Amino acid sequence: xxxxxxxxxxxxxxxxxxxxxxxxxxxxxxxxxxxxxxxxxxxxxxxxxxxxxxxxxxxxxxxxxxxxxxxxxxxxxxxxxxxxxxxxxxxxxxxxxxxxxxxxxxxxxxxxxxxxxxxxxxxxxxxxxxxxxxxxxxxxxxxxxxxxxxxxxxxxxxxxxxxxxxxxxxxxxxxxxxxxxxxxxxxxxxxxxxxxxxxxxxxxxxxxxxxxxxxxxxxxxxxxxxxxxxxxxxxxxxxxxxxxxxxxxxxxxxxxxxxxxxxxxxxxxxxxxx
Length: 274
What we know:
Elements: H1 2-14, H2 17-42, H3 51-62, H4 65-81, H5 84-112, H6 121-160, H7 164-192, H8 205-227, H9 231-235, H10 239-273
């Protein structure tokens, strides 16, 4: 285990994953607000009750307080100013910025695999757009399942009454749905991101580690920001943006490390069979 950790650290340094995560964090930040603008403008037409509240609740549980508050302000602004013009602008800018963010992920995954992307530009960009649309649909679908689970919880409680086991079960079910959605997103990105004919694996060491690191990183960073660091005193009004970008940097690092782990295990297995 120690030898594997040392080898992983060497690969992280050789493949410059720290720099790659910084690049991804920049593109994530560039993409997240136009994407949020488009998705939130689209919410009223989806006819899914309490979807906006579910998104806000999830953001406050995952992100540090400053960043969640920043998104909440965006949600309320879009909800009050939603119009065809906002939706049109969000759609056009989302396709450019979010697909650019996904394309940056694809380039970093190719770099980890030491592979030059030989796909034509239209095919690579088309893949990025399809991955982006898949991630949007997966996010909305996962949150819809969470909302449906809440409705089932309320109905069950009305029949048998509220109890602590019931609360624990549905709280666990909610996070199981979110975890499954995250694992599926990582599996699809790892399969179709690089220009390689890879096997699709929903459960793989890399995406399990990446999902775990994202969860632990979110919890740890949220605790650090809330208890041990006052970014508002240092950065003033831009503290929320700084905190959000740092969180995205941690998430990007987890995503790249997961890919690196899968590649190392694949090489080790191939070496044993040769």
